[in-house]
Amino acid sequence: MKHLKYRIQKNMALFVFFILVTPEISAQEQTTTPVPKEYTYDEKHELKIFCFRPSTYSDTKEYPAIVIFHGGGWSMGEASWGFGSAQHYADMGIMAFSVQYRLQDDKNGVTPYESVIDAQKAIRWIRENASKFSIKKDKVAAYGWSAGAHLAACAAIFENLNTPEEDESSAPNLLALKSPALSLLMYPNFQKRLGNKIEVKNLSPAEHVSEETPPSIIVIGRADTVTPLSGSEIFHKAMIEHQNDSELHIYDGVGHLFTPSTEPDNGWPNPDKEIQNKAQDAIDKFLKKHGYIN
After folding, report:
1. I want to staple 239 with a disulfide (CB 3.0 to 4.6 A). Which of 90, 222, 246, 263 is the partner?
2. Which position has the higher pLDDT, 59 or 240?
């Protein structure tokens, strides 16, 4: 019990220290989620990806796909945090994948740069195995929250970042971003987290939007202190300037991950359920608009 207590205290300290983001679903909800099929998309680092198939799956059809990246400040979290969202989209007829990626580990030289590389590799792996999963290669969406939203956006904007010779693209065809970290330039100490792996400006999506950036939807609380609204506004403004399809849904009275603004939003979130549901509905409508949901 002492070891367990220590681990909990350590995790909570990390939770507050880093730009922490939360799981999409509670532990109670995770226990009721069906067990997905597990695959390894990176043998070297033993990284897993978990697939949820639609209940009506048939290998004679082709399906859109959605790739889910959990939050956790690039330093915490696990793929199971995305299982609830994955099942939600599988129920809507989408092949859904929840991704494990490397987390920041100073001792072993792992930074958020490696997290981005892993996210890109996961999307390429899905496309490489499109026939195996009966997936439409040109209908691969990426969904993430907070740090996970940063990974999704980087996969699109910094396509095949360290592997330009790859045949398959890491860029998703649509972005669904919840409380996203889109401008790293507003975090003065982020370069320290990256070390000399890459300059922070070259891993900051909001400042690199182009006409190639796919359709995007952002849902965020106006009072977000963890991933401030200004980063999403920079991203959205650039999208509009490039005449890209972009939606920015701002919710009053809530902060990060829709925690009421009367409470601190830099700890474990306590989302306003009504606003959380509105945001989810907005994302689902955007996916339907682009042909991912019938």
Report:
1. 246
2. 240
If we measure between CA atoms, which residue out of 104, 235, 123, 243 comes closest to residue 179? 235
d(Cα 17, Cα 31) in Å, to the nearest integer? Answer: 28
Cα→Cα distances 54→64, 86, 131, 281, Å = 11, 10, 16, 19
With a CB cutoff of 8 Å and minimum separation 6, the contacts of 283 are 143, 176, 178, 217, 219
242 vs 25: CA distance, rounded Å: 35
In Å, how far are 100, 205, 268, 271 from 26, measured between CA atoms?
Answer: 18, 29, 11, 11
pLDDT digits (tens, 9 = 90+) for 124-159: 999 999 999 999 999 999 999 999 999 999 999 999
Q: Which residues contact 237 (CB under 8 A, 6 or more apart)?
A: none
- Give percent of the chain above pLDDT 90: 86
Is the separation of the CB atoms in 118 and 42 below 8 Å? yes
Mean pLDDT (the chain, rounded) = 90
Q: How far apart are CA 72 and CA 65, in angstroms?
A: 23
Those residues whose C-beta lies under 8 Å from the C-beta of residue 275, and which sit 6 or more positions away, are 221, 251, 253, 254, 258
| Residue 278 · residue 264 · CB < 8 Å | no
135-145 and 216-221: which strand pairing? unpaired
Q: Tokens for 25, please give them.
A: 């679903």
Q: What is the CA radius of gyration of the chain?
A: 18
Q: What is the pLDDT of residues 186-215, one digit of tens each?
A: 999 999 999 999 999 999 999 999 999 999
Phi, psi at 96, each rounded to 5°: -115, 140
How far is Cα 178 from Cα 44, in angstroms, rounded to an integer?
A: 30
Helix orientation angle between 147-157 and 112-128, rounded to the nearest 10 degrees: 60
Q: What is the pTM of this model?
A: 0.90
